[in-house]
Records
---
Amino acid sequence: MGKILRVELTRGRISEEPLTDEYAKNYIGGVGTASRILYDEVPPWVGALDPQNRLIFSTGPVTGSPALCAGRHFIVSKSPLSGYFGDSSAGGFWGAELKFAGYDMIIIHGKAQKPVYIWIHDGEVEIKDATSYWGMGARQADRAIRNDLGDKSVRVADIGQAGENLVRYAAIMSDEASRAAGRCGVGAVMGYKNVKAIAVRGHKKVPVADEEALEKNGKRLLETLKGDTQTNWFSKHGSSGYYAMMAQLGDTPTLNWTKGYFDGKNGITSPGGYDKISVGHATCYNCPIACRRLVTVKDEPYAFEPEVEGPEYETVGALGSNCGISNVKALAKANDLCNIYGLDTISAGGTLAFAMECYERGLISKEDTDGMELRFGNGLAVIRMLEKTAKREGFGNILAEGSRRASLIIGRGTEHYAMHVKGLEIAMHDPRAFQAMGLTYATAPVGGDHMEGETTFVEKPGKITYAPLKLNGLDRFSTERKAEAAFKVQNLWHAIGNAMGYCLLACATGTTAYPLKYNLMFYNAVTGQTMHFEEMMKIGERIYNLKRAFTIKHGATRGEDSLPERILMESHAEGGSKGSVCKLGEMIPEYYKLRGWDQNTGKPTREKLEELNLPNVATDLLGHKKSK
Amino acid sequence: MGKILRVELTRGRISEEPLTDEYAKNYIGGVGTASRILYDEVPPWVGALDPQNRLIFSTGPVTGSPALCAGRHFIVSKSPLSGYFGDSSAGGFWGAELKFAGYDMIIIHGKAQKPVYIWIHDGEVEIKDATSYWGMGARQADRAIRNDLGDKSVRVADIGQAGENLVRYAAIMSDEASRAAGRCGVGAVMGYKNVKAIAVRGHKKVPVADEEALEKNGKRLLETLKGDTQTNWFSKHGSSGYYAMMAQLGDTPTLNWTKGYFDGKNGITSPGGYDKISVGHATCYNCPIACRRLVTVKDEPYAFEPEVEGPEYETVGALGSNCGISNVKALAKANDLCNIYGLDTISAGGTLAFAMECYERGLISKEDTDGMELRFGNGLAVIRMLEKTAKREGFGNILAEGSRRASLIIGRGTEHYAMHVKGLEIAMHDPRAFQAMGLTYATAPVGGDHMEGETTFVEKPGKITYAPLKLNGLDRFSTERKAEAAFKVQNLWHAIGNAMGYCLLACATGTTAYPLKYNLMFYNAVTGQTMHFEEMMKIGERIYNLKRAFTIKHGATRGEDSLPERILMESHAEGGSKGSVCKLGEMIPEYYKLRGWDQNTGKPTREKLEELNLPNVATDLLGHKKSK
């Protein structure tokens, strides 16, 4: 759409600026362009919960176009969880609607004195009073705002009580709280700024340079997808169905990462476990796969509103196996509460599992937990603690700080059980089952997140669909070529998914028949460019290094490129990853070398930054060039 | 007293730990020891307004002993104004009383869920409810707490409304709001943590190793001081009386630093200006000089409670000449409001003067200022704006962010008029009148503060009393030997004043007859050590580098070692510093060399850090040592 919307909340000023070609050329869009803006506008002296922090909503060039599976939006900010670079993304329809309303991106700064929401409709922008929505859950507020605006087609991104109460892993929900931009605490930033919601509605069309090519290739891809077993499997079972497969590989964190698989009989971690509560499917913008599943639970104590969003893969792990919850209804209820309160299920589950292990080990007691028996598998305790966390009541006030800070508050050696990297609770793949995942978690600018480049798709047994990456034949337990795998997958994901705006599950995971070449084809058709694979990967590398530079500039050291000791030292006694530990130390030197990062400081070298056309970043990180 | 008190507010846990010999040996005490603790316990990912930030109240080894002028306490925290190292100090009686109560230091972390105060009495510690005091001014709360505790001898350090409302330059007041630890926003950290006050009372005695030596030398010094002209001058005129002298040198920032002196006739900036409101003197702990002056104003609109603390030197500059206020009553009222609300007068004045210049230049209008005519010299506007700032009402909500952030919120090129270094409003000596002051402001870990080592005392004309420094014969307008002057004075101040606990005005300014040797003599008598001058200076250097390392680690770059353009480029048209600019660029390379800091990055080199026995700091800042 060529336009950035800037909203300064302290004084209530709204302005527009062009989305320059410079941005598009060097960073594509999405997280890429937003990274550049965050890097330029948020220096280290600005804290995450500080009016000067930026909250950037961004879309990719394909978002909202007729390209398939191009419905994602991205949220970028300094993270209240890590203190470093933070990003999060979601599918659904909000991103596309933002573009129809006329903008590619919204940069929010300052802090409103009272709760507000931003209403963007066909190029018009208003900052409106949100006092009456404050205190509502994300779903309720979404409905109330759309109702008050008198247009059911409005799309809303909002926070629940968790964001309002500055829970450090609060999410920004959208589409009636069905989609979550969960990671890195972006919802707390929104809550701090007193922004309850951003409502968007528009009738503009995303301009497409070559409609014919887009249509022709789109049809061809649709045909391919129709007959594809993998795609159909995904349509049927959804991302959560995938969990049982990965459990066989010992990849699924269980009981706070003490095990690699979960034997919850007939629970949600089993292939058919989901079926008994599943009542239908849902889709994101322009996606033929429709991997989303709707669920219903009618019986107490886990009943909730009929036909709401069911738990996705990461949630099944984080709130399911990792907390020892096998009851599919308890898990679905926990997921629903996270959606309503606006909580990241990964960090919520990671923090709860941490507390559960502390409880089981006697490091905390009922005296600490407001009288609750916080043992693994206690579904009612999970439900109750999520509520207390979102409201910052009692022990929930400590859990609201995330596992790293909670362990520091509690003390007593509990730091050992906080499973995070750089403050971000680690996502649901175990590096003991996939070596390169450990490399990604340990070195990622945002901390322990799978969206930085999930290597399981190239490490797992069987044929992979990533032909241009030339990564066939990897052994998931070996460290061989894993630096290369992490390097390539991270760059790829940052170009295709996080910058262009495609759904990574649909098109960059190798699990479907949506081959890589279509992403570029669609991108070129939409933008009128003729970008090639190597160029695209270079841009991915640039974005990744810029994010890394932000994190380094904001204080991260070489020593923080690590994993919890448990993953490095304790192997599983059974299951598909039995006997393995993550050999991070072996991989890092090779990885740094490939990345052009200094072995002793972990900083990108001047040569690498100059090669990537980031000379000012080099000065920031390394000082002025030494004169002869 | 050998004891550190640790208060974790989130869970309400209180513990004690020993003040180790290691700390005493390497850092003496005061800011020194607190810097080490802050460096170790607050990593860059912790924001200033973050439960994990520490608020450290510290005393020096001589604080509360019979050594003369040894009544200071120090407050150290990550600063909400700069985002870097923050410290602040105050005289009075609170620090001595803390020691009588049994502690050298208090480390506060976490965040209480409701307002509390900490009550420390003879080794007993309680966290008590402070709900009823929340919303009170600092003076009122101090009185109410002492009244409720039923002991008028209790000493209280507390915050006013500014700290409660997280004004970024909120102070921590003490002794019925008569003394201010103003700089770096430590009051906002206290407010964020929901701590209204720390009340102390005790009957312990500070142990003295050699009472005889202390008494003998104390008597000798007292005799010397009695007959000393400079000391008597200070007793009579106080620090504010000194202002008129410095104005003659063109050293006194006026109208937001556009002039170096102020011709407010008969106002407070003139030698006798103070007399008409002065009604008496006050003293700090064990000080024979008693430079504090009590004032009374009975007539509206500037009336206030009789016999309260009058404005000190920095306040006369910041809220007086720099805001164009010559009316002594308006200034005294503004000072009284800052004490009640708990606002740093330097940053409050600096931020107001910034806004006034913006108003005069038409960059902001009545529309921005809630209808107020915010011109230089408008005393009523100053009074009103201080109130609005403390309460974060209207335009006060923007001023509450400090000049740097306010300029970024307002935009329109107003950044040029924000007179700060690293976010901290610059104190009231003009580097155009004293070159080395520019060096200190530009490179100081905390930003533009005079307490980092005020070089005016060695740069100003006439004989100086700093014999061991070997700095006689400096020319204040020349850059010659100014790197050396800044280097030595900073180290000296960090050892004697900020670590040992002496009043810098009394004993390290060269303005009195309290010669340097007495500081060491008293220190050795109290602690039983035999420290020599060189050793003391080395510790000062260690402390200074550790503070610097914190600031660097938290994101400061070489480029931030600078001054506002105005000081570098615009010379005064008249007055005692006419025609001069600060030649910072000439001095920095020499200064970095003396300090052992890298010319391109401004970081302390590995060699320097190892020489100072700070090897782990070297690893933090520079990565692991390269292997051969």
---
Amino acid sequence: MPSKRYILICKRHKFDAMPTVKNMVVDWLGDVKFVGRNEKGLKINFEIALEGVESTELSPMETLLASLGACSSYYIITILKKQRQDIKGLSVELTGLRRDEPPRIYTEIHMKYIVKGSGLNRNFVENAVKISNEKYCSVGGMLSKAAKIVYSYEIVEA
Amino acid sequence: MPSKRYILICKRHKFDAMPTVKNMVVDWLGDVKFVGRNEKGLKINFEIALEGVESTELSPMETLLASLGACSSYYIITILKKQRQDIKGLSVELTGLRRDEPPRIYTEIHMKYIVKGSGLNRNFVENAVKISNEKYCSVGGMLSKAAKIVYSYEIVEA
């Protein structure tokens, strides 16, 4: 029989290997409005886009595109900073093409990164954009299973 | 040669068959903060969650879960309303399990809908939850390609 200490170590190991758990709650606010909140009370408001109605909040599908842009940008910045590149700004323009039949998923997503900095090395930028999208970005890791993701970049001296 | 009218009809048909295009821009605000905006200027703020740092905005991956909750809830409500069900409230608790290796995607997402209403028909609710998740919700249509999505519901008389 294993000792108590052995069991504890095993349990701890099992716990450490557990995936991170994220919890969110989404409440219907009436009409086509929703609010999502995490355990600390941070919120996001949504409004379902209806034809002919001026929205006051982003839709879930718009938010999906924005999440992809933010997530992938973060890794690009982190990688370039580690390589001591003088990155001063980053914007990404995202375009999602939705199909007509339900579920109206994006079948293609195009991303164009505009990377601003002083004397940025083109190879480092290209590599950072590639690694972020193909290895690190979790949102991209999910959406790329459903949509073809195409990315490009432009370097602006600043 | 086709008449002018014929060409116009063809062009229109081609346009109607085009997928909807969504555009977003995401800007780096410095540090680990980002803002996404659509063409009408509606915004969402993001903050990348770092260990030991108290976030002031939701992370892209938290937002992904919330988008799924809002999108799927919308269709549940719409379906139940069409069936003249007296739905008075809807909340959904979402739990995402992320794997440890990059990209740190959700491998499983659990959703529990709490449907409030007066005399709601259990079969109609079950059917609405199922159809929303399996047919209509675009966010779910994308995320279900990467994660196993498990859902349940509870009816609360109100």
---
Amino acid sequence: MPAEASPLSPEAFVFDAYGTLYDVYSVTARCESCWPGKGAPLAQLWRAKQLEYTWQRSLMQRYAPFSTVTREALAYACEALGLELSVAQMEGLMSEYLRLATYPDVTDSLSRLRTKHAILSNGSPDMLLPLVESSGLRFDAVISVDELKIFKPAPQVYELAAKKLKTEKSQIAFVSSNCWDALGAKSYGFSVYWINRGNAPVERLGFKPDRVLKSLDEILQ
Amino acid sequence: MPAEASPLSPEAFVFDAYGTLYDVYSVTARCESCWPGKGAPLAQLWRAKQLEYTWQRSLMQRYAPFSTVTREALAYACEALGLELSVAQMEGLMSEYLRLATYPDVTDSLSRLRTKHAILSNGSPDMLLPLVESSGLRFDAVISVDELKIFKPAPQVYELAAKKLKTEKSQIAFVSSNCWDALGAKSYGFSVYWINRGNAPVERLGFKPDRVLKSLDEILQ
């Protein structure tokens, strides 16, 4: 019988990237400089559509890389808000995704982490690898859903991380600030830490996170 | 070779229910009477979460009936907005879903439609059948995704309608006000009419609707 899942002493940590380590709303300033007064609503709608399109395309069985989905979400969001988007603005905003800010608790927490740790992200390699590189963070593996052509929270995505890390799923702790992502990982069989920086309610998807933390620091405690 | 898809003379019309025939925001008044000043934001968040949960549960392979998803979405939305939800309020609001208002253009348009027509809905039979009954609308078939245990826009859902109606997909016109639903149907192979009552942009999912209409009346023209 495999050992019981233990969120407190896992063999490996697997981190979500966008929204967990990297702040997707750090694009807001550039949005604001393009369209004064519209930075915050644009950044919010861009992110919301980006997520919706990952779910809808996965269900339609019409996967497109996250870079394509992110561009399409930006085009939609600008049109919905009545903002004209030039090619140069599109490229400028997309380039922001290659250098998103890390949250303040990330760099120190990860540098002190002695356990094997990896990223599991919706990001296609063309977006994800430059971002990780520019941030200076180090991982034992950077895993993209791109090779499966389906997005989170499909169970095969979480299974990919267990396979790549050659680690039993019960021995993996998954860390995400996106509650639906944490619960998708829980449904698959990981132990999960939900990083609830914004004091949001738990999503109602039939599962609960093993632990709810305010910041990444707490996973080391 | 099968005949070309013709959105203008289909053998059957298939209609989405929630948001297309039935106004999901007709619950707003009851939300407002429970929590004055919060009716509109509650109704909006309730609907947004209801949809998110259908996509996320489908991808997680953790289907639950639409009645369960709708209750869970309401519970989340109330907690997120800081509203206490009693059992009586939950039951009262859920009962509103059994008698949603039809949009003003629905009854007359459907009564004049001589072509075979059906509903294809995410709604589980416990919600959908009482709603159709109470509205007095008549259909040749009322089809729920519930027997497949997956929600729109999975292609097998649209295929279910073609099978039930014993009609080639190229001869079916699908009608939805939810653009992502219309595009899911297009991706599967139906001709699609997107009823764009709110003048929204087309969703960016790699497909376009065959026709964009302002109201249901126009499908008869």
---
Amino acid sequence: MDQPNRIPVPFPQVTITDAFWAPRQAANRDHGLWAVYQQLQATGRIAAYNLDWQPGSDQPQPHVFWDSDVAKWLEGACYSLITHPDPALKAEVEHVVDRILSAQQPDGGINPYFTVVAPQDRWTNLRDRHELYCAGHLIEAAIAHHQATGDPRFLHAIRRYADLIDRKFGPDDDQIHGYPGHEELEFALIKLYRHTGEKHYLEKARYFIEERGREPHYFDLEARARGEAENRPAPRPLEYWQAHKPVREQTEVVGHAVRAMYMYSAMADLAYETQDPSLLVTLRTLWHDLTSKKMYLTGGIGSSGSNEGFTQAYHLPNHDAYAETCAAIGLIFWAQRMLQLDLQSTYADVMERALYNGMLSGISLHGDRFFYENPLASHGDHHRQAFFKCSCCPPNLNRILPAVGGLMYSQTSQEIVAHLYIGSAATFNLEGGQVTLIQETDYPWDGVVCMRFKMNQPLNFTLKLRYPGWCQEARLYLNGEAISIGDHLEQGYICLDRQWAPGDEVRLQFVMAVTRVYAHPMVKANLGRVALMRGPLVYCLEEADHLVPLAAIRLPREAGFDCQFNPDLLDGVITIQATANAVDLSGEGQPLYQPTPPRTQPVKMTAIPYYAWDNRAPGEMRVWLLEDCLPH
Amino acid sequence: MDQPNRIPVPFPQVTITDAFWAPRQAANRDHGLWAVYQQLQATGRIAAYNLDWQPGSDQPQPHVFWDSDVAKWLEGACYSLITHPDPALKAEVEHVVDRILSAQQPDGGINPYFTVVAPQDRWTNLRDRHELYCAGHLIEAAIAHHQATGDPRFLHAIRRYADLIDRKFGPDDDQIHGYPGHEELEFALIKLYRHTGEKHYLEKARYFIEERGREPHYFDLEARARGEAENRPAPRPLEYWQAHKPVREQTEVVGHAVRAMYMYSAMADLAYETQDPSLLVTLRTLWHDLTSKKMYLTGGIGSSGSNEGFTQAYHLPNHDAYAETCAAIGLIFWAQRMLQLDLQSTYADVMERALYNGMLSGISLHGDRFFYENPLASHGDHHRQAFFKCSCCPPNLNRILPAVGGLMYSQTSQEIVAHLYIGSAATFNLEGGQVTLIQETDYPWDGVVCMRFKMNQPLNFTLKLRYPGWCQEARLYLNGEAISIGDHLEQGYICLDRQWAPGDEVRLQFVMAVTRVYAHPMVKANLGRVALMRGPLVYCLEEADHLVPLAAIRLPREAGFDCQFNPDLLDGVITIQATANAVDLSGEGQPLYQPTPPRTQPVKMTAIPYYAWDNRAPGEMRVWLLEDCLPH
């Protein structure tokens, strides 16, 4: 096991100052959090905590997963309050916390559905009913609330709930030998352990992870106990819940994508806390399976809507891509945890890919409209919405955006590791004292990153700088002097171990060219197609920029590219322009079938960053473009 | 109006002797008719006429469209008996006719569903319940039975039913002002008029056609009379039934494809009988809309499964093509009727296209397994079935196959028109006497057609020979002497007006080369794709002939073709072989995304006739191949 004491640098220690993420965070603060809060209220999700729903009443019936939506919003609101105090938001946060606490039952439980709708069903259907998942999100919210306000009352209340679960579930005869149907409680408990130092929370997380997938399968036993006929097939195969095998025997990512990401994240946390190399072996195998066979170019994952999850290797359809926003967020969580366990730049490459593309596409530029599904092509009928019936994604965006700074760095007492390049100021407490690292960069539009150190006296530590996987060519200067990158590369990081002095300056130049990307030929949907990337950004064509249908456009293999920053377009983006060939679709009088191929003509093609699509007039979109032509 | 006295030469006057259609007819006789008959029995469709179904009984409940399946089978069986007497089949035919007649009600009605299941609902839901459609098929069956046996009892009985409908429906106050929800009765009544000379049948057909689509819409009135709420939307738009506008105001083919084809066929019959030029204008407009925007290369029509019918222009997806076998058959019916009204080779071209491809694909080589849908590409999961719950297609094939000879010719008293080239002997009664025309040809494998005449004395008449639309180059010899085709072409027919003598020989050489076909560029599914045809046959690739997935194969634009007849393959077919490029799909270790395009390698590509696919091991199929590469 590598470097057990490496920890992520929490976002409160990182102030983002750039022109890319800071506006996204502001949009979330000014619009996103408020828009989602309004929907939580309008749909009855907050009022559910009044516990006054009755059969036949006019109020909407509380749903099994509503708590998780409220909790994720609370977590995001609290994160926002940490960096940007806001009395109005704080007042709503406290109002919601009050409502939640008022709904706590004498035994500690908090869950309106299982209080007023189906109390008799509590803990009888862990597989389908989301109660442990909701509990996990409430735990995360309570920790965030404690961090934001210092007020322990929500945390204390939620610990009573966590303790109830701790007593109720476990290996003893009088305990339930089950585990969550939707994983998430596992890493929430580890977070609670880290926050409180109470080891029994870690142990219970370990129990849930270790018990999962063992035979006889708990979900089957539980179904039988509910009186469901023996021969009645489960509604889905156990793979859907990653409960088909003990976790260490799992070698392929399967089932519901968000569930899978949350489970692997919890496994990574457990591996970290317990220094268990067998878990790391499993996680590396699963990571390889995911990233070499089942991940969209955008970092979107889970190609099928029917199971909101994974299908066979290389099945990555574009128009029908599910690629749920929450799954991209889950992948970011997992990647970040792998970086603490197993420092290799490939985890950060994937984290960055999902962050700038598959996750960021999930929220409108204004911050208040959302994608649940993130296809890589659209006929023009896929649009952002204010909310969803199953609305996990909007509050998940609410909580990850304020915390993006927390993804940038790891540290030990003797090293600083930079995974992401974002204009910012970050503070590190190292063995010899405190260091502030200023990043100045126009990333992701430009690959020049200037880092300066502020500290009181010279300090010995290792600075590790990720060499991005997308970059073909880079230069490094230390206080103006060129340094050979190749001499310092380890696992994809440029490692500079020296005595650093106040005012030292590291200048990175990652050459940011347009890259043509080709998919593995087993990805049928992309045969004969090419995608464009520039730095970490995946690009796409949108109908708004073209006079011909996108299906008519083919990019010649030898086409050159013209990149320009447009400050007024889509909150400021670099577009990629090229001269492409377009089939002439005009000829109304042409026969339906003829022996002559359709005429083509040159057209100007403009690609925009994928994350920014569907922020203008509705229309077609596609990432993977037909290419003129394959070599013989 | 052109040549009102042109009539199709009925199939009993045409004996097919070739190596292509004769075996298909034999397969239908030896396997197809018996296989369908067995299914009609096994599913209770014959027993339904016992009228002993009761609520709660074990027997399957008669369905509203079962009569049509039985009737089409009867019609096909009778046609087969006309050319190939078979006592065993005759006995089953008489058994079924007996069952049907035993079910006739005192008022003349024959319809088990409306006798035992829902007698109170009779004629209250013409839109959805198929009773007039079923009556039409029974009329066609009874005429066929009369032609085959000379026994008038089924015809007499069915005329009582037709007379009941004639009294019940019409413009008078005591009549129902409705029309069939599924068209077909209209042309059945015209057939009955032609068979009996009773003009009131023609008049009732005219009524049904003229009344259709007039406001207030009958289907709405009828729904209201059933007590359906005013504001309840109809289950489908009126276009589904071609009932949205009076027929002469219809300019686009819409709705359910089989319904549309049967309606246009009836309109063509009515135009022919009434010499109404306004109907011909409408039909030409509809024909142009269909064949220039909404027809598959195979002559399959109706691209969408959701309405079993038409969508917008140029929407012709390949994998999801519905292209119902019955719709191709309906198109053949319509095309053949247009040829009598409006002699232009384009109708025969389309008729031939549907006959050799979209229709013939519907039946297995052995004759006893069927396609309902005829997609132009398959992932390997689309296969022929023995029967279907809604099983209109198998008995429709049963009835068209014995009658293929009836599509070959039209005649007037002074002309013979050859629409199709099939090895055969046909007899024509012309003004001056009888002529027998012998066609010798290996069509569709070879374009040489030798025609010889047998007659007692020289006769003056015009021989019109279709110049096939697929043919780029042809030669014509009369008694060994070359004739300029260009000098004799009229509306796509080579017109030879002369005195013909016994033993005269016409030799046609239609050069039958492999043709690359491109779709109109508005057909998105086929952008960058090419299809191969040879003569009238559309070709496809099938997995069975290839070691690489079909999606990996690209046909270079300059590839040459090698055509060979394989007597042992698929009952004997000409295959088209070429060297194509295939993406190398081997590299398991390749990354999911990379900047290098996939490698390609040359592969041998083998195309087989589309009609013959899915007669070997199940697997992928595609008609439209990716082409290497588009010109710049």
